[in-house]
Design goal:
Layout: H1 2-22, H2 28-52, H3 56-78, H4 82-111, E1 113-126, E2 133-140, E3 146-150, E4 164-169, H5 186-213
Antiparallel strand pairs: 1-2, 1-4, 2-3
Length: 216
């Protein structure tokens, strides 16, 4: 297994060196396309994670791998100066977070309905970051759909099977329900994603143009 990791690491290093030799001869358009492609991958991965909902586990690994490859790979390909590196990384992180955090809220803000639900299951787990207790509640909506809520104010240590709670749910079932009122709208989400994408494209394009002018 250790030899396999070494071979994989060597392959990545060779690929990066090859890309670094290739990129200085390309135009700013190449940098812009790289930035746009990175943004599309991150937005698409985040959107897929939200839409899949309870089926998220099926696609969890490839989506995480794709996001990690983009976040680590783009700076390695572009090799930007420090200031532009900070801009590029900031844009990548915003795109990584904004879609999973905002798309569900935006859909529920547009057409979500506050509806009663019955708790069918309560499971205690551990928060991955802080290590504290985290509760996941299985719920049944009035139309019979079964869903789950994790870490919300309506699913706590005091919640019991059979309790009636209120959640915000999408009648068309595009996104999972939420225990608290949505606060992000599509205009807000679109502005954040659009601004981060544009800034990333510009930064990647300028970095590529700078490398082209700099003698190797």
């Amino acid at each position: 297994m250790r030899d396999a990791w070494k071979r994989a690491g060597g392959a990545v290093a060779r690929a990066v060196r090859s890309t670094q030799r290739w990129t200085p001869r390309r135009s700013r358009l190449t940098g812009a396309l790289l930035g746009l492609g990175a943004a599309l991958v991150l937005v698409g991965s985040g959107l897929a994670g939200v839409v899949l909902g309870h089926d998220w586990e099926l696609a969890k690994l490839p989506l995480i791998v794709a996001s990690v490859v983009v976040i680590l790979g783009l700076p390695l390909i572009l090799v930007p100066p420090e200031k532009q590196l900070l801009v590029i990384l900031s844009c990548l992180i915003v795109l990584l977070i904004s879609m999973p955090a905002g798309f569900r809220d935006a859909v529920l803000s547009l057409r979500g309905e506050r509806t009663p639900a019955t708790v069918t299951e309560v499971t205690r787990g551990r928060k991955p970051n802080t290590g504290g207790d985290e509760y996941t509640c299985g719920i049944r909506l009035p139309d019979g759909r079964g869903r789950s809520l994790t870490g919300t104010k309506v699913c706590t240590a005091y919640t019991r099977v059979g309790d009636r709670i209120h959640v915000y749910a999408d009648p068309h079932d595009l996104v999972p329900p939420k225990g608290t009122a949505p606060v992000i709208t599509f205009p807000v989400l679109g502005t954040v994603v659009g601004a981060a994408t544009l800034l990333l494209v510009v930064a990647a394009s300028r970095t590529m143009g700078r490398r082209r002018r700099t003698p190797g």
